Amino acid sequence: MGIGRKVRLLTDSTRVDFYSGEPVRRIPISIFYPTKQEGSSFYKDLYDPYPEMLAKIYGEGKRERIEALDQLKAQFMNEAEPDRSNVYPVIVFSHGLEADRDFYLFLIEPLVNDGYIVVTTGHLYDTDVTLLPTGEVIKMKEGLLGEASFAERAAQIEARGLDMTYVVDHLKTLNCDPDFAGMLDLNLVGLCGHSLGGMTVLK
Question: N or C of the chain: less Cβ packing under 10 Å?
Answer without folding.
Answer: N
